[in-house]
Amino acid sequence: MAAAAAPEAWQAASPRRRRSAARRPRRREAAAAAARAPGAEPEVDGGVVLRRIEEAREDLLISDFWSSALETINRCLRKHLEQLKAPSEPLSEALGDLHLDSPPDESDVAPGSVPKETPVTGTCHLKCVCYGIGNFATCVIARNQLAFLLLFLEKHQIPRSHCWVYDPLFSQLEIAVLNTLGVVVLGENEEGKRSVHSEPTVFYMLHCGTALYNNLLWRNWSVDALSKMVIIGNSFRGLEERLLTRILQENYPYVAQILKGQEELAFPQTSQYTDVFNDTSVHWFPVQKLTQLSTDIWAFREEPDYQDCEDLEIIRNKTGDPSATDLSSL
Fold it and tell me: What sign results for the dihedral spanned by CA atoms 274, 62, 235, 29?
């Protein structure tokens, strides 16, 4: 379902360093600052963008950061899969299906080209949803984040057709490039309210607004759904540290309540990619922890409205009922 992004879609957060709650800029101010950033480049044609994505991919692949970050993700995925595997399915078989071993030979990729997805040789259990990647045609930070996503898909042999991508900032050129890469560009404002539909799903959400994480948790607010979800995005513990407890509980109650039901591993620190992957963690939700949460927590299912939120980092869907968003594509 490739289509142009709706203009009234939620607003992706610009990359940011850790900061105190008192210094958190408003979303529009941050977006304007990002547009003036030294790393911003004039938009060019699709061929140039594809070449730059491949260059970013090659740089990531040979970096120490990539191998360390991949191991961080895989440590969570192994635990995640262990709790999901069927009793009759050995864990080694499940892990083999996700190809957590060595990547394919990179020498087969022609210089200057964007590699095609690796053929799936086993049953692929994971799907992927990416929110808020930004203007990768003109922003180095966004381009590195996209390159990381493509490497992640290749490494785990997730077909690109099983990866859904959305950002309201995408230009028509960027949508065309994403279509060429083979991922699915969403044209509907979901506000992050996408159900996993009982299928293991990785959500790749770097530097997104807290409301987006809150909406995603609300849509999947059950032990069964959350246990099938992995989130690569802003550290929930970092959010707890930066936001006043009252603000977190009143404006983002699902984030606040899941803190005791999750585990997270921080991405490695790196000077090369400080502004790209700062404050990023891999989150997963152990069944044992989820079942220990009180029944009152699970009974609370009120849809977030953010009417009293002064620093909302999301633009609402005004075209219709967000709950009516087409979620059947996953």
Answer: positive
